[in-house]
Each structure stands twice: as structure tokens, then as C-alpha cells.
Amino acid sequence: MKAIEEIVREQQEFFKKGKTYSYEFRKEQLDKLRTSIKSHEQELLDALKKDLNKPAFEAYGTEIGLVLDELSFVRRHLKNWMKPERVHTSLVNFPSKSRIFKDPYGVALIMSPWNYPVLLTLDPLIGAIAAGNCAAVKPSNYSPNVSALIKKMLEEIYPAEYVSVIEGGREANQSLLSQKFDYIFFTGSVKVGKLVMESASHNLTPVSLELGGKSPCIVDETADLELAAKRIVWGKYINAGQTCVAPDYLLVHEKVKDELLEKIVFTIKKFYGPAPQASESFPKIVNMKHYERLMGLMGSGKVIIGGNGDAKRVQIAPTVLDEVSWDSPVMQEEIFGPILPVLTFSSMKEAMELVNDRPKPLACYYFTRKSERERSLLQKVSFGGGCINDTIMHLVSSHMPFGGVGNSGMGGYHGKDSFDTFSHRKSILKKSSLIDMPLRYPPYKDLYFKMMKMIMK
């Protein structure tokens, strides 16, 4: 506790010196991070392999490469984002100028999860640095090799009073949340997110909560089923399903269910071979606790493919469960593993009602050839973000915010939205001292009242 208190105090003192406010300082820190990632690329790949058995292609494509892309995007646009923003001035303030300044909050706490430990630690950090904050970074202890490497990397390039990495488990988390930070950015489960928000409320600390939920994948009878099968299988089983925006369940039109399932089974075999649960290139479940939880869900329906695991390797085969009901155990919580339950609908009205009757999901995916149905779903169903005729890919863009709504979280980030998330928009009115209109001053006159009503209407 004392060490964490000291780190936070030193960061608060460092921030007060004002070094983080300049564009040159922020650019230099972003460049340092990019250089560090490039020089430790193989170590990052090795650590991801040890912690989650991620193959190099997947580790680079879903983590390291995305971080480098984000760094390039932010670095390219940062100077323009930092400029004060000129806005319209109302007539009642004539003559004056109105501007919005982008101030850093101060000291930010970034708490990241284990499933994408590089991406979900460094992406928020890029936003915090770009916006001029100091940061305390808390990676997950469930991915110890990546956590230790990130600590090593950041300590090599940043002094602890600017950016620090705190390792540990629940006790470290509790100690951090008892401190007074200026901003908290948390990625993880809904259950822990509620605790983070409760802790933040004691100091009125603003938060971003990147959570999860049961993200539906809807396939109607007009969809290209072969394309849908490939993209659903890829999005569901990447990282062994341990992805917050993975399709959590498949909601398919009853007319095409059997054909789609045939194509999904064919695609799983084509992608992963006969024994993915014993493959060197298929990610593992993070630990035995989660492995046993997932294996316990297999009885929720009829196994179409998969259903088996290897406890020694902590791996579970890509699984599809048919004949699942909304009351089945697999439908009571976010799965966060390689199990895809299948349910059906008979009309899009029914499908949308089924989704809307449940907590707002982090993502929603819809496969269709009907643009009017697409428009209807986007207007009538609330969710964090998603794709039409694809899965997952909406989150890789630095041009769009990524985040949840309702039970799936609050706030968004990526690109400029990361800069905005870690910035306070400070409104400043600069009034001319050459003219001072008497209209607002007592004693109030009838003429002034009439003039005010003409202006303010």
C-alpha cells in the first residue's frame, strides 16, 4: 500500500511541473513507446505464446500490429488535436471569442485484462500519453509473462513518476482503487467494473468502463451463408473465444439453420483440423478455473462439433451447441470461450425483440442482403458497436470509437476518441474590454427586458 501511495504522490508532483503539456514532450514519449515495441517484438510474441498459446500471426495481427497502427495514427494527428477549438459565440456575449482547450486530467489509472494483454494495456496508454497525462498501469496477473515484459519495457523508457507499472493481484487492485486518481480506465468484467465505478465514486473520479456481455450474431435467410460461416468461425474462435466482442451466441433464421450449421462445421474442420484442443497453433484457456467453468457449460445443448478438451494443455476444441434454450446455463453469462450456442428466430421483429429484452451487448453482428432490415436493426437495437456481414473488425479502426453502452460499459476510445477520453474539454470565453453593454446590469429597465427577449429566443 505504501509503495502505491508513493507512486501516485510522485506522479501527482511530476504532473504539476507541467512537462507533459507540450506537443514535443508527448510526441517524444509516443516515439519511445513505438521504438520499444519494435525492439521487443519477438519477446512480446514469446510472452503471448507462453501465457495464451497465441500463434505469432494471431498475436501480431490482433495485438502488436494494432498497437503500432494506433501509435502511427495518433502521432500523425496529435498536433492538430491539441489545438484550441474555435466555436461560435452567442449574440449575448458580443463582442467576444469562444474556444475549447483540451487539458489533461492529471494522473490516470489504466487497469487491463489478460485476454489481449498487450493491446488492451498499451492502447489506452497511448491515449493517456497523447492527452498529456501521467499513468499508473495495472496489467492482469493472469498473463504474468506479458505483464512482466510490459513492466520491463515501460521502465526502460519512462521514469516511474511519469509512467509506472504495478503488478499483483486482488490486493494490488484494491490498493490502487483506494487512491485518488484523476481518471480511471478499466477493461474487464461487468462484475469488477461495478466495483471500480463504486470505488471511483468516493473521489468523484471519472471512469471509462470497457466491459462485455452476450453479443449476438444474427443471420437471416437472405445472408450469404458460406461467407457468414467463415467470418463467424473466425470471430468466435480467435483467441479461443476469449474476446470481449466475440459472437457470444448465434441467432439464425429457422429456415437456414441447418445449412448454416453444416457450413460452420465444415469451416471449423478446415480452419483448425481434427484436434484443435491439442494444437500448438490454437490458443489455450487462461487457467484451469476458466477451463472447468467452460467444460461445465457443454451440457447446455446438443454438441454438433467439439465438446471436448485437454486439461493438461488447458485447451478446448471449437464447439457448437444446438438445441439450446434461453434458460440454458450457457445463456446466463458471457461465455468467454470457444463455445457457440445456437438459437433460432422466425422474423426479424422477433430477433430484435429477443436482443432488446436482454442487457445491452458490447457488440452485435448481422448477416443479411436486405438493406432495409439492416437499417431497422441499427435504429431499433442498442449495442456498443458492431458489423454488418462481418464480426470483430469494427474495433480495429482508429477512425471510430470503441466502447459499450449500458451493461456493456461506458465511454469509448481509439484514435481521436482516446485523446478525447483522457482530456478535459475546458471552455473559455474571452470578452472584449473595449465595449461593456449595460443590458445585464441592475437596475433592470423595461427597455432592457424587451431587448433581452429579442436576443434570447
TrEMBL record:
The keyword Coiled coil applies. Residues 3-428 form the Aldehyde dehydrogenase domain. The active site is at 210, 244. Keywords: Coiled coil, NAD, Oxidoreductase. GO terms for molecular function: aldehyde dehydrogenase (NAD+) activity. PANTHER family: ALDEHYDE DEHYDROGENASE, ALDEHYDE DEHYDROGENASE TYPE III, ISOFORM Q. This is Aldehyde dehydrogenase.
